[in-house]
Amino acid sequence: EVHLVESGGGLVQPGGSLRLSCAVSGFTFSDHFMDWVRQAPGKGLEWVGRSRNKANSYTTEYAASVKGRFTISRDDSKNSLYLQMNSLKTEDTAVYYCVRDGYYDYLWLLDVWGKGTTVTVSS
Amino acid sequence: DIQMTQSPSSLSASVGDRVTITCRASQGISNYLAWFQQKPGKAPKSLIYAASSLHSGVPSKFSGSGSGTDFTLTISSLQPEDFATYYCQQYNSYPLTFGGGTKVEIK
Lengths: 123, 107
Description:
Chain A has strands at 3-7, 10-12, 18-25, 34-39, 45-51, 60-62, 70-75, 80-85, 94-104, 107-113, 117-121.
């Protein structure tokens, strides 16, 4: 069974940093693209960014709202995905979901979701 | 960026009702459209991809249709476990974008 478990959330002051982790099991992590998606309190879903697999050179994509402040990385040997968040703003307060991409019809798309970890940016 | 607009933003329906939710893209996205279900306090669950293909394990009471800019999600006979918020999402181009959500409530 596929499992994705996020950790690392918490309370941080504006301007601070936080690193989220996503530990996965039940599938071959190194084969898959992975995403981070967030949800501010009482709001909808917002895509944060994507990590491609080794076959695609581990390249990344980011939403404009986080580009230059957030960095997605992965360690295939540890079956783990990371989200380094710097220069945090109050508007980054959200539940952050780790999402596995599946390969369907020759395209990668959001497939299996973790339960999420909560990040609160406040002074 | 491609804007995704869902309507209605909320609806009230009874058990057994047929419910249809609409999603419109600001530009053509072929059939690169997914639907997700989210219950309160829970993570989203993937329902549909490629506008009309059900993910494994998703019951056939859910169906999707559309191509280009206009899409629909239909629940054929609403059951208590279907009361939730539904989101559409395009994966035609970056950034990936979601609709604002449709909350399906009990009448």
